[in-house]
Structure formats: structure tokens, C-alpha cells
Amino acid sequence: MAEPNFPVLKPGATIGILGGGQLGRMLALAAARLGLHSHVYCPDAESPAFDVVRRITQADYGDKAALEKFAASVDVITYEFENVPADTAAFLSARKPVLPNPKVLATTQDRLVEKQFINALGIATAPFAEVNTADDLAKAAEKLGRPSILKTRRFGYDGKGQTKISADTDPAAALREVGGEPSILEGFVPFEREISVIAARGHDGRIVCFDVTENEHGDHILRVSKVPAAVTLQVTAEAIRIAGKIATALDYVGVLAVELFVVRDGAGHRVLVNEIAPRVHNSGHWTLDGATVSQFEQHIRAIAGWALAEPVRHGSRIEMFNLIGAEIEDFARWLTVPGATVHLYGKAGWRHGRKMGHVTRVFD
């Protein structure tokens, strides 16, 4: 059950945010709009979130003295990324509420545990197998077929920590490519499109979902998100049902994203869960300009104990484009495009594959 007696924060309270990237930055901006302060904790001196908050702590996630002071200065703690060290989350949760609950991290930080959790709810995923050795990988590839995808169980995102297993791939070489880490092999899914659901759940257990989003990737990085997704009403309903079931099973408080594959099934379609992201998500950036409430404000509302909003979409359709790497140098071309809004993250310098900003475009 959610916590009905969680203290409702008042304007002027302070949100502690673990992580100083663009998601932390946008969470802090949403909090400020609601009259709440933010204190960002991050080891990186060049964290873009530092530019927009009242207080910062630049320290290692294992620095207990710094964590102690941080906890004492805030009213509730959240995070912008799911790889917060377990010891850090446990240390802080003994001092202040940490939301979503750190127990969620134990499920979502490990791809094997996450998929087992999803399957235990009666929700389908791509077929998968645990891989710890080259022999494991050879047997798993024989069972699941090739092509398939080898992924590290932990710390992979935007294509990092994964490699394709083709007909001529050497298992030992593939395992070395992902650093010899404990991994899983995922069978190939012939999906028609990728979609995601951004869902918010409050302390009272109420769940509110944004419009289902269709996503296009390149080099394993999200390039474009489109709303509404080109899917049937049945697929939309099933995707939202799945997201709600996952949020409830996790006793989640805050915003989470559920990424799914839409697969042809006879004359209809079915959906498979790809991943859970226990945080605000890149595919929800369209909500900043395309809805009456953003995913960031919705998350702040949830962890503050405030009522969740019922988002209403602006326009007939919306597109979100990530500005990746050198694309940031051409951001000015969007400034005069009708319906477009430019968001730049203030990062010190671009590099290949680095998300530097995004553009949302709302169509009448």
C-alpha cells in the first residue's frame, strides 16, 4: 500500500535530487515553478542541474559526511537516474523519505531481476536467458536464436553495455566486448514499433498516464518521440494497463516509464515490455510543451504528496527531437520554426552520442 500519512510538503520545502544531469535540471525547474526549492547532489562539477538550483553538493555518492548534511537540508529525496548506489539510497532512506522507494532500484537496476519480476506479474517480455560465461552464451544463443542481443545486467543505457549476437559471433569475444560482466541474452523481437507509457503514481495509489508515445531510435539512442502513437485503441489500453500494474506492484511513488514493443499477432497486435525506467524519461520530454502538466511537474507533485494532474495534450500531434552530439551546433535553425520550442541542457561540450538538448514541436 502507498503511505496515506506521508507529510504533504508545503511551498518553500526542499526537494533533494540525486544526480545532476538534464533530468535533474528539469525536475528542479518544475519544482521551482511550484514554489519548491531543490538541492542537487552529484559528484560531477560540471553538472547542468547545478546552474538552476539554490543549493548544490558536489561529492561522491559514498561520502557519508556529505550525505548526512544533504539529508539534513531537504524534506524528501528523489533521483534522476536509476543507478544510484544501493548503499547511498539505504543511508539516505534511514534519514529522510526517498522516493521512489530504494527497494524499486533492486528490481530495476538488474535486467535479469527486472524481467523476472515482469514475467511474474503475467506480463510478457522478449525471451531471455542468464549469461555468465561464454558457454552460457553459446547455449542461450542456440536456444533463443540469432540474431539476439547480449546486454550487461547492470549499468547499461543508450546502447552501452550491449552487443549483437550474429550467426558468426564468437561467444567469448562477445562477452569480452561487454566487459565480461554478468549479462542476459535477449531473443530477437520482430516488432512493428516501439512505444512507451509515462505513468505517475501518488501516495494514495492513484495512477495517471500520459498519452502513449511512439519512439524511434538510432544507434540505440532515442532520436524522435511522437504523440499520439500510431497504434490501435486496444494496444493503447493494454500498454496503459501494463504500466499501471507495474507501478502498483512496485508500490511506486513518482513517475516511471515503461518501454514496450508492439508485435503483430495474427490480425491484431500484442505488446511486450522491453524495460522499466524508475524515473522521468527521455520519451516524456514532449510533455514539457505538449501537455498541461509535464512529467517533471507530475513527479514533483507525487513525491510532495500533492494531487496528480490530469494531463491534457496540446495540439493534434507532437514531435520531440533529441539534439545529439554535434547537432547542438545547429540548434538555431529551430528558433523560428512554427510550434517549436528549444531546450538546451547547458552541458560543457558535445561528444558523439551525448544528449545536448531537445526540441518539441506542437502541431495544431
Structure write-up:
The protein has helices at residues 22-33, 64-72, 86-93, 103-108, 111-120, 134-144, 171-177, 233-249, 287-290, 295-304; strands at 14-18, 37-41, 55-57, 76-79, 128-131, 148-152, 162-165, 183-187, 191-201, 207-209, 213-218, 221-227, 254-265, 268-277, 317-324, 340-344, 355-363. The chain has three domains: 14-108, Rossmann fold (3-Layer(aba) Sandwich), CATH 3.40.50.20; 127-187, Dna Ligase, domain 1 (2-Layer Sandwich); 191-363, ATP-grasp fold, B domain (D-amino Acid Aminotransferase, Chain A, domain 1, 2-Layer Sandwich). Strands 9, 10, 11, 12, 13, 14, 15, 16 and 17 form a nine-stranded antiparallel sheet that branches. The N and C termini lie far apart (41 Å). Helices cover 26% and strands 29% of the residues.
Search tags:
single chain, 364 residues, alpha+beta, Rossmann fold, Dna Ligase, domain 1, D-amino Acid Aminotransferase, Chain A, domain 1, 3 domains, 9-stranded antiparallel beta sheet, 4-stranded parallel beta sheet, 17 strands
**What is the CA-atom radius of gyration, in angstroms?**
20 Å
Total number of strands: 17
Largest sheet: 9 strands, antiparallel
CATH architecture of the largest domain: 2-Layer Sandwich
Give the distance, in angstroms, between the N- and C-terminal Cα atoms: 41 Å
Compute the number of structural domains: 3
> Pairing-aware structural class of the strands and helices?
alpha+beta
Roughly what is the average pLDDT, rounded to an integer? Answer: 95
According to CATH, the homologous superfamily of the largest domain is ATP-grasp fold, B domain
Range of strand content: 25-35%
**Percent of residues in helical segments?**
25-40%
Count of helical segments?
A: 10
Coarse morphology: globular
CATH topology category name of the largest domain: D-amino Acid Aminotransferase, Chain A, domain 1
| Uncertain residue segments | none
Under the CATH scheme, which class of the largest domain? Alpha Beta
